Amino acid sequence: MQNHVGMTPLHLAVYYRNAALVTLLLQYNADLEARDIQGRKAVDLAVEAENFPIVELLIAHGTKI
Fold it and tell me: At which residues are the ANK repeats (predicted)?
């Protein structure tokens, strides 16, 4: 499921810095490799925002940088 700019629920949780929701989505196997229309993965948004706790969480669940 993606919105009009290709963001998934995981992208949005990362964008809004909601670590609890990121964790929940990861428990339900959110797609770590999904890209928005600009080609960004959720981890890319976390890096851009310098949200390193979420970056670490995504890496721990297997995302590739």
Answer: 5-37, 38-65
Q: List Cβ neighbours of 22 (8 Å cut-off, separation of 6 or more).
A: 10, 13, 14, 42, 54, 57, 58
Contact between 42 and 32 under an 8 Å Cβ cutoff? The reply is yes
Q: What pTM does this model have?
A: 0.92
Q: If you classify domain 9-60 with CATH, what class do you get? A: mainly alpha
| Alpha-carbon torsion (30, 36, 17, 45), positive or negative | positive
Q: Could you tell me the residue ranges of all domains in the chain?
A: 9-60
